[in-house]
Write a structure and sequence with these properties.
The complex is a heterotrimer of chains A (522), B (429) and C (178). With 429 residues, chain B is of the alpha/beta class. Chain B contains 19 helices and eleven strands. The chains are: A alpha+beta (522), B alpha/beta (429), C alpha+beta (178). Chains A and B meet through helix 2 of A and helix 14, helix 15 and helix 16 of B.
Chain lengths: 522, 429, 178
């Protein structure tokens, strides 16, 4: 261990640690843009200046290793002045379009200006004009004027995704980020560049202009996109989830894949689509979630509150009926456990099926994060099945002799491309009970006796996922968006006749004053 | 008085060919060097006190001794990317005496045990590149390059590499990036090139003049070389003199020579009998000296450093009383704005800001407080970046503006140059 | 428990006669003043007579437009952020013109929630929302009070900027040094 002093505080760090890492370890503030813990050192922003006792010149903290007995400070007037001017150099050609910049509110320049700057700019000359709204591919838009050329995105494509799409073109203050020969930035990790961009130069098309970040709150969660189980932060407000960003952890480092960023969509009650041209553009809201329990038979739908529907089912299913339970790997360990405890004590053990999409691809791995098993909790399901001494069937036999087939259908439906074909085989039974978060329009239109019961998504419940390597990862509920949705545990308890406390949607949103709105009609 | 060591045979047209060079004792030093041990050569160079002639003036022998002994391939790079405005000493060397450089390089390569060297030539030096290439071919044919040189078992390959016209590729790490096929941008130090340079291998980068001087140090011995020049700056140095003198050109002088003597004697005095106004002593990136300071200045590293400027590459720009300093600064700051690689923020944005501020004076948009701002911006750019280009852009501002502040104030107040008067366009205002 | 005996008040206090009389006296005085000096009367005969408010009056919101009639608003949502009554709802979208980039496809103000504080005006960085002089804006139904983008920017009262100034030209602003 190497001993040094940071702003008067004695610190011990492992040899080879850079000064900026040491600052982060002791949670001291230090200005920086280009340095990122997951990338190599570029040393170009020149903001992380520190004063080292005995060294007449200021040094950058990111490229200087801590040596024994170093006395480091970034509190002196000399450093403060250097940082102030460093910021000013960043800002003189940076456009003042914060109001329409998506990064505003989580912008490195804004934060650091408030922390280290707070001066009046003396730049009275015209700013350099560069390209705006450059399409970099399916997912990302670039604004070169906002770019401060920290080169984080370039280093990301070089070092992490190893796809090398990005580069810096031209030189001096005409430098611009770009892609080689119009080749798009479409690698499966591309949106990470948006996360690491300290300014609003790279913006994600999926999130662009949808929300201002200060209207959103974030909560830690686990990605349900595949069996890697990346740690993520989920950004939400009362209307739903808006985006998913990676959270640093041992599992995923600082990154996540772009498929994982789609998982928020399964939780939202509605999906907004923009249609029409400029002046007639409209935001159309399409329903995306199952919001009520219903019984569909021969084209007739019968709506019922979920609890009532379950109690009705409870009366119908008993030991005399032939039952099947189909499970997918997209629910939590706790849910499997409660459901199986109930099932095993009431019904026959060999009526349980494990439905997995493409089991032959389950062991695929792209070398970074993406795995072939698109279920977050296959290992958890296996573990719980083992605990209850159940051997789940993977071969789907003929269901025609069954009275009820209960299907815990996948939350991320898009990874189960065999859902339609499977529904056909389940439909041979007398009744099918679909436990589903999303809508199943194809299945509904089959005109079979089907119950559709809304379940909670990962954002609406707390629980544990076990990832590919057997790592148990606990996550907490973000918020409830569909009041009628229940978790599998809650359902199992209701079927078992146990008391259940259900939570309600936290409706702090403005409520229309019905009286006022009816007044004219009375 | 001039001492002709490196420039001795510049006038001889045959000197650039192998027979012509051999006739004047060429490649004899090489056989002498091969009889020495590599460490002896390094020690000799160290003893001579030779300092890098590219601009920074770092002791060459010391640089060589930084090489790690880890058995990795070592590279020798010759920096012939002479981009500093008004410098033309290396160009003359390559055009007039290429074998002198090649011989110096083989000796140096032998000293540091390097199997491969490159001469990185500035893109605009097409003719010089041709001459050097031809000389290399001749050397290969004569067995001075290639495998088992002169039966010593030492193998060395040499090649030239043409830059694409970027000033920053004259910076050693920028040059290495360019050689590696990357964008010519300086690299972060540490690691220094001597430890991890070209292709991440230990690399020594030396200027053309430095490598040529190595030949003379080995030929005559360190003691003989040290006879010239001053105590701390031994040896001779090439000076490229440009500007308002009667005889501009390349002069080889012992370090410590008086600047005023160079102007009055070697260069034949000021052109048209005008009065001396100012001198930029080491390429445009060196702070300017006014007439009074020129009287006292001697041409060596120490004296100029003491006067707040530097010897740099040894290009001396002499300006007479008709030269407008606002003009001068405009040209200089435009150059650095154009040449900044854009990597470090203070330089990328600062050079542009300086250039815009100076242009503002020309366009009549400036206010008096902009002069202070100009100095302040330059001050804050200094010493903040990976390479020295930021300093190179800042130093001329910090030299010219305080020394000729009245000219800047006059321009801002009146809208035209104090020295040149109203230009044609300004008459109408 | 203890009892506090309260003396019954005097007859003069119970009848409040002096108070009533002095009140009547004042009323009659004002009535007579108003009868003979109508100009100094403090009240108005609304709706026949209307009060003239100052030009700074903060009435119903107006979304200003550019010289070519397009809405100035860039959908930055600073007004919605500043709004203490949470009555502004904006849906933003992408414009094909890179100099505009972001624009609102819907902008709703719930006038019944609005407290007319003027923070939206203050927050706006592009002078896109102003509070106009209108204040008599009745509606038959509660829904009539949720103003949408068309109504805010192009309602007949504005008369394309002739009635209520709602056209803000950037060129003019630059000339005025704004």
């Amino acid at each position: 261990m190497v001993k040094c002093t940071i702003n008067g505080q004695p610190v011990e760090v492992p040899p080879g640690t850079s000064i900026i890492e040491a600052f982060k370890m002791v949670e001291q503030d230090i200005a920086h843009y280009c340095w990122h813990p997951g990338l190599s050192v570029a040393g170009v922003c020149r903001l992380c200046m520190v004063e080292i006792q005995g060294n007449p010149r200021l040094q950058i903290a990111c490229n200087t290793a801590v040596l024994e007995g170093m006395v480091i400070s970034n509190q002196s007037e000399l450093v403060k002045d250097a940082v102030k001017w460093g910021l000013d150099f960043h800002l003189i050609n940076h456009p003042l379009d914060c109001p329409i910049c998506d990064q505003a509110g989580e912008c490195g320049l804004q934060d650091q200006y408030m922390k280290f700057g707070r001066y009046d700019s003396e730049m009275g000359q015209e700013k350099v004009k560069k390209n705006k709204v450059v399409d970099l591919g399916e997912k990302i838009v670039l604004d070169s004027e906002r770019c401060i050329l920290c080169s984080r995105c370039v280093r990301f494509t070089e070092e992490v995704s190893k796809t090398n799409e990005l580069g810096i073109f031209n030189r001096g203050d005409h430098s611009e980020i770009g892609t080689f020969d119009g080749r798009p930035l479409n690698n499966p990790y591309a949106v990470n560049t948006v996360d690491i961009c300290p300014v609003g130069a790279l913006t994600s098309k999926d999130f662009r202009f949808r929300q201002r970040v200060w209207f959103l709150s974030d909560k830690p969660s686990i990605c349900t996109g595949c069996s890697t189980g990346c740690s993520v932060d989920v950004y939400h407000n009362k209307e739903g989830l808006w985006r998913v960003k990676p959270r640093h952890s041992e599992v995923n480092g600082y990154w996540m894949c772009d498929h994982g960023r789609e998982i928020y969509k399964s939780t939202n009650v509605t999906v907004t689509e923009f249609v029409g041209e400029r002046d007639h553009k409209k935001a159309l809201k399409k329903q995306n979630r199952l919001i009520e329990a219903k019984f569909v038979s021969k084209g007739q739908s019968d709506y019922r509150p979920t609890v009532e529907m379950l109690q009705e089912l409870k009366a119908k299913i008993d030991k005399t009926k032939k039952l099947a339970l189909v499970l997918t790997g997209q629910y939590t360990v706790e849910e499997y456990d409660t459901l199986l405890t109930y099932w095993v004590s009431h019904f026959c053990k060999d009526s349980i099926y494990h439905w997995q999409n493409h089991p032959e691809k389950a062991d695929e791995f792209d070398g970074l994060l993406i795995r072939g098993d698109k279920n977050p909790n296959t290992q958890g399901l296996k573990k719980v099945l083992l605990k209850h001494n159940v051997t789940a069937k993977k071969e789907f036999s003929d269901f025609s002799s069954f009275d009820y087939v209960i299907v815990a259908s996948p939350e991320n439906q898009w990874v189960y491309d065999d859902i339609h074909q499977k529904a056909l085989s389940f439909n041979k039974a007398q009744n099918v009970v679909w436990l589903s978060a999303g809508l199943l329009p194809e299945v509904e239109n089959m005109g079979h006796n089907s119950y559709f019961i809304p379940v909670k998504t990962f954002a609406e419940k707390s629980g544990t996922f076990i990832n590919f390597e057997g790592r148990e990862q606990r996550f907490e509920k973000v918020d409830l968006f569909v009041e009628q949705a229940l978790s599998l545990s809650e359902m199992a308890r209701i079927l078992d006749g146990q008391p259940v406390h259900l939570d309600s949607v936290n409706e702090v949103a403005r409520v229309q004053n019905e009286f006022v709105h009816l007044r004219g009609q009375l | 008085m001039e001492i002709k060591l490196l420039t001795e045979h510049y006038q001889d047209d045959q000197y650039r060919t192998l027979p012509g060079y051999k006739a004047k004792g060429g490649y004899e030093t090489l056989s002498k060097a091969f009889k020495m041990k590599p460490e002896e050569i390094v020690n000799e160079v160290k003893a001579s006190g030779l300092r890098g002639r590219g601009g920074a003036g770092f002791p060459t022998g010391m640089k060589w001794s930084f090489l790690p002994n880890n058995g990795e391939t070592r590279y020798l790079l010759c920096n012939a990317d002479e981009g500093e405005p008004c410098t033309f000493k290396d160009r003359m060397m390559m055009e007039r005496a290429p074998h002198q450089l090649i011989e110096g390089m083989i000796i140096s390569a032998f000293a540091i045990n390097s199997p491969k060297s490159y001469i990185y030539i500035r893109g605009e030096y097409v003719y010089a590149a041709k001459v050097v290439k031809k000389a290399i071919d001749e050397a290969y044919e004569a067995g001075f390059l290639g495998k088992n040189i002169m039966g010593t078992g030492f193998t060395h390959d040499m090649d030239i590499y043409l830059g694409a016209g970027a000033y920053i590729c004259g910076e050693e790490t920028g040059m290495i990036s360019s050689l590696e096929g990357l964008k010519g941008q300086p690299k972060l130090k540490p690691p220094f090139p001597a430890v991890q340079g070209y292709l991440k291998k230990p690399t020594i980068v030396n200027n053309v003049e430095t490598l040529a001087a190595v030949k003379y140090i080995i030929r005559d011995g360190a003691a003989a070389y040290k006879k010239y020049g001053s105590e701390k700056s031994p040896g001779t140095k090439l000076f490229s003199v440009a500007g308002d003198v009667n005889k501009p050109g390349n002069y080889e002088l012992p370090l410590g020579y008086k600047m005023i003597d160079l102007i009055n004697n070697e260069c034949g005095g000021m052109k048209n009998g005008k009065k001396l106004k100012a001198v930029i002593p080491g390429g445009t990136s060196a702070p300017i000296l006014n007439a009074a300071e020129v009287e006292k200045a001697t041409l060596d590293y120490e004296c100029l450093a003491q006067m707040g400027t530097m010897l740099g590459s040894g290009s001396i720009v002499i300006m007479d009383e008709t030269r407008c300093m606002v003009d001068m600064l405009k040209v200089i700051s435009h150059f650095y704005h154009h040449e900044s690689c854009g990597q470090c923020t203070p330089c990328r944005e600062g050079t542009g800001w300086l250039s815009k501020l100076v242009n503002g004076i020309f366009e009549g948009k400036a206010q008096l407080k902009d002069i202070d701002l100009l100095c302040e911006v330059a001050n804050k750019m200094k010493g903040k970046t990976i390479c020295a280009l930021s300093d190179a852009a800042a130093l001329p501002v910090l030299g010219i503006v305080p020394k000729f502040r009245d000219e800047f104030e006059f321009y801002i107040r009146e809208g035209y140059s104090k020295i040149k008067g109203k230009s044609h366009g300004q008459m109408h205002h | 428990m203890s009892i506090i005996r309260v003396q019954p008040p005097k007859i003069s206090r119970v009848w409040y006669l002096p108070g009533i009389l002095s009140g009547m006296l004042f009323t009659f005085k004002v009535m007579l003043k108003n009868l003979f000096n109508k100009k100094k009367m403090a009240t108005l005969n609304y709706p026949e007579e209307k009060y003239e408010y100052s030009p700074r009056f903060k009435g119903n919101h107006v979304l200003t437009v550019k010289a070519d009639g397009e809405i100035r608003c860039t959908a930055c949502m600073l007004c919605a952020t500043a709004c203490p009554a949470d009555c502004i709802t904006i849906v933003a979208s992408e414009d094909e013109d890179p100099t505009v980039e972001k624009y609102p496809i819907n902008y709703e103000i719930d006038m019944l929630r609005c407290v007319f504080c003027g923070y939206c005006e203050e927050a706006c960085p592009v002078d896109a929302i102003r509070m106009g002089p209108e204040w008599q804006t009745p509606g038959v139904n509660g829904d009539n009070f949720v103003y949408d983008i068309k109504q805010l920017a192009y309602r007949p009262n504005l008369n394309s900027g002739q009635g209520i100034p709602s056209v803000v030209d950037d060129k003019e602003r630059h000339q005025l040094g704004i």
